[in-house]
């Protein structure tokens, strides 16, 4: 039985590596490409989202769902939804969500987030290009319920002042993951 379990873990690990490689290959030249947030800032993202039991948290353009997984580990009594259009990142996100099958608190949709109804979400995380943030802002203003919190990584919403900015020290050599911008709608 132990051997069978070890073989299953090995097969899943290899599958994730292959899927990761396919995701990387598929993202070359894609618009927008899959660019994951640096793993070392995940705890900062979780803190900025201020997740409490019963809240519904969404990651628009969730990629491999690493943000959702980190949030679920920190607060398993909330619900998490990933929205991803790209097939390979979506597959990686689905596999990531399977790890949380016991709690069942992560779901992943393969969908264009411009077509996603945002009214049911209490928290949103975004790691999107500035032009995408600009196009998304009217939708956020229209659909999010009052008091919803939106956290973006690195890029702001043009013309909208963040309620707070979390500078991430020690990120000077990296071009990604230097700050989090927190907005209340």
Task: Provide an overview of this structure.
This protein is an alpha/beta fold. The protein has one domain: 3-Layer(aba) Sandwich (Rossmann fold). It is 37% helix and 19% strand. It is built from five helices and seven strands, in the order ααβαβαββαβββ. It has helices at 2-27, 42-49, 66-74, 87-98, 130-143, and strands at 56-60, 79-84, 106-110, 123-126, 149-153, 164-167, 179-184. It has a seven-stranded mixed β-sheet with strand order 3-2-1-4-5-7-6, with helices on one face. Strand 2 (79-84), helix 4 and strand 3 (106-110) form a beta-alpha-beta unit. The longest helix is centred in the N-terminal third of the chain and has 26 residues, at 2-27. It is globular and about 60 Å long. The model is unreliable at 19-30 (pLDDT under 50).
Corresponding CATH architecture: 3-Layer(aba) Sandwich
Major sheet strand order: 3-2-1-4-5-7-6
**What's the rounded overall pLDDT mean?**
86
- Oligomer category: single chain
SS summary, helix count: 5
Q: Considering the protein shown, what is the CATH homologous superfamily? A: Vaccinia Virus protein VP39
Taken as a percent bin, the fraction of beta residues is: 15-25%
Radius of gyration: 17 Å
End-to-end C-alpha gap: 52 Å
Would you give the CATH topology?
A: Rossmann fold
Helix content: 25-40%
Q: What is the name of the CATH class?
A: Alpha Beta
Taking the sheet with the most strands, its summary is: 7 strands, mixed
The H-and-E topology, N to C, reads as HHEHEHEEHEEE
Strands, total number: 7
SSE class: alpha/beta
Stretches where pLDDT is under 50 for at least 5 consecutive residues are 19-30
Number of domains: 1
């Amino acid at each position: 039985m132990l051997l069978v379990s070890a073989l299953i873990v090995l097969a899943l690990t290899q599958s994730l590596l292959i899927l990761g490689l396919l995701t990387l290959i598929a993202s070359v030249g894609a618009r927008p490409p899959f660019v994951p947030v640096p793993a070392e800032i995940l705890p900062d993202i979780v803190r900025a989202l201020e997740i409490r039991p019963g809240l519904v948290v969404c990651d628009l353009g969730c990629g491999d769902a690493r943000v959702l997984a980190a949030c679920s580990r920190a607060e398993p009594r909330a619900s998490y939804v990933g929205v991803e259009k790209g097939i390979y990142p979506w597959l990686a996100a689905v596999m990531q969500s399977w790890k949380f099958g016991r709690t069942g608190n992560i779901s992943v949709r393969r969908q264009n987030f411009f077509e996603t109804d945002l009214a049911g979400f209490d928290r949103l995380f975004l790691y999107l290009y500035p032009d995408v943030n600009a196009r998304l802002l009217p939708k956020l203003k229209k659909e999010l319920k009052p008091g919803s919190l939106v956290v973006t990584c690195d890029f702001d919403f043009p013309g909208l002042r963040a309620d707070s900015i979390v500078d991430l020290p020690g990120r000077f050599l990296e071009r990604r993951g230097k700050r989090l911008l927190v907005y209340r709608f």
